[in-house]
């Protein structure tokens, strides 16, 4: 990112007037705007930190270093650098999808920073592994997704967005499509390969910070069995909050409902 500060490069914002910090970290294919209808529920009681992952379409693509962002550790570096730059010493963290895993990895490095992790649509591994682990996808299915992205990105987005949103909420599909189209297709494909080829099952036991796993009733990206697997293997106190809504992006499809569920999780 050169001479540009990480706070500027990743569009970091702090909203709200509370005395405690709360981080909202978005997932693959979105940017911080994904939280815009959830944010107002928390600005009275928290200072809410929002930022964009370096792969987001809202970030200058020149900042995306293909050599650096080959694994999630570089994204963890970014998160910790943001918190240090803001002089945050303690926060609750809400991470969606890829950012759920980034938050867990960050908590292993700096457990004192995080009072609680709330993990929405989290998966340590998307690929199935024999009879021992059901991640939701076979290798051939993933390769087919990559091929479709390369062949016709627009057609892939138009097919993928409604499946990912899951619920019958056209506005959410339009919003997710917008942020996917904002991403440069080569960056989208590169990040997809990084995410789908990751296997973080081995680090779950190292996560000692209390975790709340939020899992929707039906998520095409993350089967319910993954939430159960994570609860059984996380190293600290963990709970599952089953959400009475569908899809991988409840903050887009059911924001007020999700906000209420987040309030419950944060109060426990």
Question: Please, could you describe this protein's structure?
Answer:
The protein is α/β, with parallel strands linked by helices and 268 residues long. The chain has one domain: Alpha/Beta hydrolase fold, catalytic domain (Rossmann fold). It has ten helices and seven strands. The chain has a seven-stranded mixed sheet with strand order 1-3-2-4-5-6-7, sandwiched between helices. Helix 8 (224-233) links the parallel strand 6 (211-218) and strand 7 (238-246). The longest helix is centred in the N-terminal third of the chain and has 13 residues, at 73-85. GO terms for molecular function: hydrolase activity. Keywords: Hydrolase. Belongs to the AB hydrolase superfamily. Residues 22-259 form the AB hydrolase-1 domain.
CATH class: Alpha Beta
Total strand segments: 7
Summarize the helix and strand pattern as letters: HEEEHEHEHHHHEHEHH
Helix content: 25-40%
What name is given to the CATH topology?
Answer: Rossmann fold
Query: Under the CATH scheme, which architecture would be assigned?
Result: 3-Layer(aba) Sandwich
Pfam families: Abhydrolase_6 (PF12697)
Keywords: Hydrolase
GO molecular function: hydrolase activity
Protein name: Sigma factor sigB regulation protein rsbQ
Key terms for this structure?
268 residues, alpha/beta, Rossmann fold
